[in-house]
Amino acid sequence: MVDFGRLITAMVTPFNDQDEIDWEVTARLIDYLIEEQKSESLVICGTTGESPTLTDEEKLEMFRFAVKHAAGRCKIIAGTGSNNTKHSIHLTREASKLGVDGLLLVVPYYNKPNQAGLYQHFKAIAEATELPVILYNVPGRTVTCLSAETTLQLAQISNIVATKECASIDQVTEIAAGAPEGFRIYSGEDATGFAAITVGAHGIISVASHVVGQKMHDMIHSYVNGDVTQAARINQQLLPLFKGLFACPDPLPNPSAVKYALCTRGYGNGDVRLPLIGPSEAQREFIQALL
Known about the structure:
Distance between the termini: 37 Å
Pathway: Amino-acid biosynthesis; L-lysine biosynthesis via DAP pathway; (S)-tetrahydrodipicolinate from L-aspartate: step 3/4
Structural class: alpha/beta
GO molecular function, one term: 4-hydroxy-tetrahydrodipicolinate synthase activity
Shape: globular
Keywords: Amino-acid biosynthesis, Cytoplasm, Diaminopimelate biosynthesis, Lyase, Lysine biosynthesis, Schiff base
Order of helices and strands: EHEHEHEHEHHEHEHEHHHH
Number of strands: 8
Protein name: 4-hydroxy-tetrahydrodipicolinate synthase
Helix content: 40-55%
InterPro entries: Aldolase_TIM (IPR013785), DapA (IPR005263), DapA-like (IPR002220), Schiff_base-form_aldolases_CS (IPR020624)
Largest sheet: 8 strands, parallel, barrel
């Protein structure tokens, strides 16, 4: 089984002033996340990467570029999920040709399939590839929630190896209690990541790790190594930033806040694609204070 590690960053997609992918910044960002922020894997073109406004061509070029530039220093996970099963299979097959290490498949959004439909959707995509698959349950964005029961059914499929869980700590607990050996749970919520690890999650697929990844790495490994007090202390220190990146005045949708935070550190111009917009002056001041 591919080891994706305990700290995975859902990487932003940098744009230039012409609203195109900025490849120079992308290269520097990959280096920074691996070398300074201790990311063990990167999710490319997930929600934080603004997947809804990227074309298939842009996604495939991002996958190709990330694989080449990371050069084995971390694992590359391609976001190939959508609410169209055939399209997801097509994008998955194309991504598989580019050397990615795994796939992240989001719960279908808008068309609201039932649990039987969700099972068949993920099963069909998993059967179309030999790559390891991470499920992505984020009901705050998709409306539909992948139940713990359906997750555990899907975990019986050999190459469905993990889930990114954003529903609740109760759901993390239930999945952890019933998961087969080797199936891993990742928290998809920075603010509850530490709590998820204490009830059985393996690690965190993070947004905040763009700016505090080293500290998050220390928090996770302190807990794993038995220093629960130190891990809790680090989590307490980071919690205002975890919450603040998603709770600016007049809350900003992800990744507007973290892109601005990266901009202040010299990684890109902070631009997002419409219909997302960047932070207001008050929001910029709030983010700067968090940092």
